[in-house]
Fold this sequence. Notes:
This protein is an alpha+beta fold. It has two helices and four strands. The chain has one domain.
Amino acid sequence: MTNYNEDPYDTMWFTTFRATKKVEHITNNPKIKISFPSHKEGEIYEITGTADFALEEEVRNKWKWWMLF
């Protein structure tokens, strides 16, 4: 999965195809933990939360933005 986030303190967006194991896992259990490296060497950020899927129209609007990057 690839992320696209304009604001790290707002909703986090991740793009993926629907027919993936990750989507199946999230559908069955929406509790998630995301980890990613800090700017400081050896440190990692971890975020826990609940995943959800955007409406198709919202995805199309966001995808246009993602294509610009």
